[in-house]
Amino acid sequence: MASDRPVILDGGLSNALEDRGHDLSDALWSARLLRDAPAEIAAVHRAYYEAGAMVATTASYQASVAGFERAGVSRAEAERLIGDSVRIARAVCDEQPGRLVAASVGPYGAMLADGSEYRGRYGVSPSVLRDFHGPRLELLVDAGPDLLAIETIPDVDEAEVLVTLLGELDFPAWFSYSIAGSRTRAGQPLTEAFAVAAVEQVVAVGINCCTPDDVQHAVETAVAVTGRPAVAYPNSGESWNAGDRHWTGSAADSTSLAPGWLAAGARYIGGCCRVGPAAIRRLAAAIG
Protein backbone atom coordinates (compact mmCIF):
# COMPACT_ATOMS: atom_id res chain seq x y z
CA MET A 1 0.00 0.00 0.00
CA ALA A 2 2.90 2.35 0.56
CA SER A 3 4.73 4.11 -2.28
CA ASP A 4 6.69 7.28 -2.77
CA ARG A 5 3.38 9.14 -2.94
CA PRO A 6 1.66 9.89 0.35
CA VAL A 7 -1.58 8.24 1.36
CA ILE A 8 -3.82 11.02 2.66
CA LEU A 9 -5.74 9.89 5.73
CA ASP A 10 -8.94 11.40 7.04
CA GLY A 11 -9.27 13.61 10.11
CA GLY A 12 -11.12 13.28 13.39
CA LEU A 13 -14.46 11.49 13.27
CA SER A 14 -15.81 12.77 16.58
CA ASN A 15 -15.24 16.46 15.89
CA ALA A 16 -16.83 16.15 12.46
CA LEU A 17 -19.87 14.48 14.01
CA GLU A 18 -20.05 17.15 16.72
CA ASP A 19 -19.93 19.79 14.01
CA ARG A 20 -23.03 18.11 12.58
CA GLY A 21 -24.82 18.63 15.90
CA HIS A 22 -24.25 15.34 17.74
CA ASP A 23 -23.59 15.14 21.48
CA LEU A 24 -20.82 12.58 22.02
CA SER A 25 -20.33 13.12 25.74
CA ASP A 26 -21.32 9.60 26.81
CA ALA A 27 -18.84 6.76 27.35
CA LEU A 28 -19.44 5.24 23.91
CA TRP A 29 -18.37 8.48 22.20
CA SER A 30 -18.73 8.26 18.42
CA ALA A 31 -19.44 4.50 18.60
CA ARG A 32 -22.93 5.33 19.91
CA LEU A 33 -23.90 6.57 16.47
CA LEU A 34 -23.24 3.15 14.98
CA ARG A 35 -26.54 2.30 16.65
CA ASP A 36 -28.31 5.65 16.71
CA ALA A 37 -27.29 7.47 13.51
CA PRO A 38 -25.22 5.33 11.11
CA ALA A 39 -26.08 7.58 8.17
CA GLU A 40 -24.29 10.43 9.93
CA ILE A 41 -21.12 8.37 10.18
CA ALA A 42 -21.41 7.64 6.47
CA ALA A 43 -21.82 11.35 5.77
CA VAL A 44 -18.57 12.14 7.59
CA HIS A 45 -16.68 9.42 5.73
CA ARG A 46 -18.04 10.88 2.49
CA ALA A 47 -16.99 14.41 3.48
CA TYR A 48 -13.42 13.30 4.11
CA TYR A 49 -13.22 11.39 0.84
CA GLU A 50 -14.53 14.46 -0.98
CA ALA A 51 -11.88 16.56 0.77
CA GLY A 52 -9.15 14.37 -0.71
CA ALA A 53 -8.66 11.64 1.90
CA MET A 54 -7.78 8.25 0.46
CA VAL A 55 -8.65 6.33 3.64
CA ALA A 56 -11.77 6.26 5.82
CA THR A 57 -11.03 5.27 9.41
CA THR A 58 -14.02 3.46 10.88
CA ALA A 59 -16.11 4.49 13.89
CA SER A 60 -14.79 1.56 15.94
CA TYR A 61 -12.14 3.32 18.03
CA GLN A 62 -14.39 3.27 21.10
CA ALA A 63 -16.40 0.23 20.02
CA SER A 64 -16.06 -2.98 22.02
CA VAL A 65 -18.38 -5.69 23.20
CA ALA A 66 -17.68 -4.79 26.83
CA GLY A 67 -18.32 -1.10 26.23
CA PHE A 68 -21.59 -1.70 24.41
CA GLU A 69 -22.78 -4.19 27.02
CA ARG A 70 -22.09 -1.66 29.74
CA ALA A 71 -24.40 0.71 27.83
CA GLY A 72 -27.18 -1.87 27.79
CA VAL A 73 -26.56 -3.35 24.33
CA SER A 74 -26.77 -7.11 23.97
CA ARG A 75 -23.66 -9.06 23.01
CA ALA A 76 -25.13 -10.07 19.65
CA GLU A 77 -25.99 -6.49 18.77
CA ALA A 78 -22.61 -5.26 19.99
CA GLU A 79 -20.85 -7.70 17.70
CA ARG A 80 -23.02 -6.61 14.80
CA LEU A 81 -22.38 -2.92 15.46
CA ILE A 82 -18.61 -3.43 15.49
CA GLY A 83 -18.84 -5.08 12.09
CA ASP A 84 -21.20 -2.34 10.91
CA SER A 85 -18.44 0.21 11.44
CA VAL A 86 -16.56 -1.40 8.56
CA ARG A 87 -19.64 -2.00 6.43
CA ILE A 88 -20.70 1.66 6.69
CA ALA A 89 -17.28 2.86 5.59
CA ARG A 90 -17.11 0.24 2.82
CA ALA A 91 -20.42 1.37 1.34
CA VAL A 92 -19.12 4.93 1.08
CA CYS A 93 -15.73 3.72 -0.16
CA ASP A 94 -17.45 1.92 -3.02
CA GLU A 95 -18.74 5.30 -4.22
CA GLN A 96 -15.14 6.56 -4.48
CA PRO A 97 -12.93 4.28 -6.61
CA GLY A 98 -9.42 3.77 -5.30
CA ARG A 99 -10.21 4.63 -1.69
CA LEU A 100 -9.49 2.40 1.32
CA VAL A 101 -11.12 1.46 4.63
CA ALA A 102 -9.01 1.25 7.80
CA ALA A 103 -10.71 -0.39 10.78
CA SER A 104 -9.88 1.61 13.88
CA VAL A 105 -8.61 -0.28 16.92
CA GLY A 106 -8.33 2.03 19.90
CA PRO A 107 -6.63 1.21 23.22
CA TYR A 108 -8.18 -0.59 26.16
CA GLY A 109 -8.25 2.71 28.04
CA ALA A 110 -10.70 4.18 25.53
CA MET A 111 -13.34 1.73 26.72
CA LEU A 112 -12.78 2.83 30.32
CA ALA A 113 -13.65 6.43 29.34
CA ASP A 114 -11.67 7.81 32.28
CA GLY A 115 -8.69 9.36 30.51
CA SER A 116 -6.46 6.32 31.00
CA GLU A 117 -6.05 5.96 27.25
CA TYR A 118 -3.70 8.95 27.60
CA ARG A 119 -1.71 7.33 30.41
CA GLY A 120 -1.53 3.60 29.70
CA ARG A 121 -0.27 1.17 32.31
CA TYR A 122 -3.81 0.21 33.23
CA GLY A 123 -2.88 -2.20 36.00
CA VAL A 124 -4.35 -5.23 34.21
CA SER A 125 -2.59 -8.37 33.01
CA PRO A 126 -1.66 -9.09 29.38
CA SER A 127 -4.35 -11.78 29.36
CA VAL A 128 -7.01 -9.16 30.14
CA LEU A 129 -5.77 -7.02 27.26
CA ARG A 130 -5.72 -10.04 24.97
CA ASP A 131 -9.28 -11.03 25.92
CA PHE A 132 -10.39 -7.47 25.23
CA HIS A 133 -8.64 -6.91 21.90
CA GLY A 134 -8.75 -10.39 20.37
CA PRO A 135 -12.49 -10.73 19.72
CA ARG A 136 -12.91 -7.17 18.40
CA LEU A 137 -9.98 -7.59 16.02
CA GLU A 138 -11.60 -10.75 14.67
CA LEU A 139 -14.96 -8.99 14.25
CA LEU A 140 -13.35 -6.11 12.40
CA VAL A 141 -11.27 -8.32 10.10
CA ASP A 142 -14.29 -10.50 9.32
CA ALA A 143 -16.19 -7.39 8.18
CA GLY A 144 -13.65 -6.83 5.40
CA PRO A 145 -11.54 -3.67 5.82
CA ASP A 146 -8.45 -3.10 3.71
CA LEU A 147 -6.29 -2.80 6.81
CA LEU A 148 -6.45 -2.16 10.53
CA ALA A 149 -5.56 1.15 12.15
CA ILE A 150 -4.05 0.23 15.52
CA GLU A 151 -4.06 3.73 16.97
CA THR A 152 -3.50 5.93 20.00
CA ILE A 153 -1.70 3.15 21.86
CA PRO A 154 -0.21 4.72 25.01
CA ASP A 155 2.35 2.12 26.07
CA VAL A 156 4.57 -0.76 25.04
CA ASP A 157 2.75 -3.25 27.28
CA GLU A 158 -0.44 -2.96 25.24
CA ALA A 159 1.53 -2.83 21.99
CA GLU A 160 3.13 -6.20 22.74
CA VAL A 161 -0.29 -7.83 23.11
CA LEU A 162 -1.60 -6.23 19.92
CA VAL A 163 1.33 -7.18 17.71
CA THR A 164 1.04 -10.79 18.91
CA LEU A 165 -2.63 -10.78 17.89
CA LEU A 166 -1.76 -9.21 14.55
CA GLY A 167 0.68 -12.02 13.89
CA GLU A 168 -1.99 -14.60 14.64
CA LEU A 169 -4.53 -12.87 12.39
CA ASP A 170 -1.92 -12.20 9.69
CA PHE A 171 -3.73 -9.07 8.56
CA PRO A 172 -2.16 -5.76 7.45
CA ALA A 173 -2.23 -2.78 9.78
CA TRP A 174 -0.61 0.50 10.57
CA PHE A 175 0.47 0.93 14.19
CA SER A 176 0.54 4.32 15.87
CA TYR A 177 1.27 5.43 19.41
CA SER A 178 -0.03 8.43 21.28
CA ILE A 179 3.01 10.35 22.46
CA ALA A 180 4.15 13.36 24.42
CA GLY A 181 7.47 14.74 23.23
CA SER A 182 9.91 11.91 22.54
CA ARG A 183 8.16 9.27 24.64
CA THR A 184 4.94 7.30 24.69
CA ARG A 185 2.18 8.61 26.91
CA ALA A 186 3.31 6.04 29.49
CA GLY A 187 6.82 7.49 29.37
CA GLN A 188 8.67 4.83 27.38
CA PRO A 189 11.32 5.80 24.79
CA LEU A 190 10.01 5.87 21.24
CA THR A 191 12.91 3.74 20.06
CA GLU A 192 11.67 0.92 22.28
CA ALA A 193 8.04 1.42 21.30
CA PHE A 194 8.63 1.51 17.56
CA ALA A 195 10.83 -1.58 17.67
CA VAL A 196 8.00 -3.57 19.29
CA ALA A 197 5.59 -2.58 16.51
CA ALA A 198 7.90 -3.54 13.64
CA VAL A 199 6.33 -6.91 12.84
CA GLU A 200 5.63 -8.38 9.43
CA GLN A 201 1.96 -7.41 9.32
CA VAL A 202 2.59 -3.72 10.09
CA VAL A 203 2.89 -1.63 6.93
CA ALA A 204 3.68 1.64 8.73
CA VAL A 205 4.68 2.65 12.26
CA GLY A 206 4.22 6.07 13.81
CA ILE A 207 2.11 8.37 15.92
CA ASN A 208 -1.27 10.03 16.25
CA CYS A 209 -3.23 12.05 18.82
CA CYS A 210 -0.23 14.26 19.61
CA THR A 211 0.70 17.86 18.93
CA PRO A 212 1.93 18.70 15.42
CA ASP A 213 5.27 19.82 16.87
CA ASP A 214 5.94 16.28 18.15
CA VAL A 215 5.60 14.66 14.73
CA GLN A 216 8.88 15.39 12.94
CA HIS A 217 11.17 13.76 15.50
CA ALA A 218 8.82 10.82 15.91
CA VAL A 219 8.69 10.17 12.17
CA GLU A 220 12.46 10.32 11.88
CA THR A 221 12.80 7.91 14.81
CA ALA A 222 10.18 5.49 13.48
CA VAL A 223 11.83 5.25 10.08
CA ALA A 224 15.30 4.84 11.58
CA VAL A 225 14.20 2.11 14.00
CA THR A 226 11.88 0.11 11.75
CA GLY A 227 12.99 0.79 8.18
CA ARG A 228 9.30 1.08 7.33
CA PRO A 229 7.22 4.02 6.13
CA ALA A 230 5.82 6.14 8.94
CA VAL A 231 2.24 7.06 9.71
CA ALA A 232 1.51 10.49 11.21
CA TYR A 233 -1.80 12.11 12.06
CA PRO A 234 -1.61 14.60 14.91
CA ASN A 235 -4.34 16.57 16.63
CA SER A 236 -5.06 20.21 15.91
CA GLY A 237 -2.62 21.31 18.62
CA GLU A 238 -5.27 21.66 21.32
CA SER A 239 -5.12 19.48 24.46
CA TRP A 240 -7.85 17.27 25.91
CA ASN A 241 -8.66 17.75 29.60
CA ALA A 242 -9.98 14.30 30.49
CA GLY A 243 -11.15 15.37 33.94
CA ASP A 244 -13.31 18.26 32.76
CA ARG A 245 -13.93 16.68 29.32
CA HIS A 246 -13.12 19.67 27.15
CA TRP A 247 -10.39 20.94 24.84
CA THR A 248 -7.96 23.66 25.85
CA GLY A 249 -5.38 25.73 24.02
CA SER A 250 -5.28 27.04 20.47
CA ALA A 251 -5.56 25.16 17.21
CA ALA A 252 -2.76 25.26 14.66
CA ASP A 253 -2.79 24.26 11.00
CA SER A 254 -0.06 21.66 10.46
CA THR A 255 -0.21 21.82 6.66
CA SER A 256 3.07 23.70 6.49
CA LEU A 257 4.79 20.99 8.58
CA ALA A 258 3.58 18.05 6.51
CA PRO A 259 6.16 18.35 3.68
CA GLY A 260 8.86 17.83 6.32
CA TRP A 261 7.12 14.71 7.59
CA LEU A 262 6.91 13.42 4.03
CA ALA A 263 10.58 14.11 3.42
CA ALA A 264 11.46 12.23 6.63
CA GLY A 265 9.65 9.10 5.50
CA ALA A 266 6.00 9.51 6.47
CA ARG A 267 3.73 8.02 3.82
CA TYR A 268 0.41 7.85 5.66
CA ILE A 269 -0.44 11.41 6.71
CA GLY A 270 -3.67 12.91 8.03
CA GLY A 271 -5.26 14.38 11.14
CA CYS A 272 -6.72 13.22 14.43
CA CYS A 273 -8.80 15.05 17.05
CA ARG A 274 -10.14 18.47 16.07
CA VAL A 275 -8.87 18.16 12.49
CA GLY A 276 -11.79 18.38 10.07
CA PRO A 277 -12.48 18.05 6.35
CA ALA A 278 -11.30 21.59 5.56
CA ALA A 279 -7.88 20.86 7.09
CA ILE A 280 -7.64 17.55 5.19
CA ARG A 281 -8.45 19.40 1.97
CA ARG A 282 -5.54 21.78 2.62
CA LEU A 283 -3.27 18.86 3.48
CA ALA A 284 -4.20 17.00 0.29
CA ALA A 285 -3.50 20.12 -1.77
CA ALA A 286 -0.14 20.61 -0.09
CA ILE A 287 1.31 17.10 -0.34
CA GLY A 288 -1.14 14.92 -2.26
TrEMBL record:
Entry superkingdom: Bacteria
Keyword field: Metal-binding, Methyltransferase, Transferase, Zinc
Cofactor detail note: Binds 1 zinc ion per subunit.
One Pfam family it belongs to: S-methyl_trans
Residues holding Zn(2+): 209, 272-273
Cofactor(s) of this protein: Zn(2+)
One GO-annotated biological process of the protein: methionine biosynthetic process
Record bears the keyword Methyltransferase: yes
Keyword Translocase on entry: no
Chain ranges of the Hcy-binding domain: 1-287
EC number per UniProt: 2.1.1.10
Protein name: Homocysteine S-methyltransferase
Organism of provenance: Kribbella turkmenica
Taxonomic path: Bacteria, Bacillati, Actinomycetota, Actinomycetes, Propionibacteriales
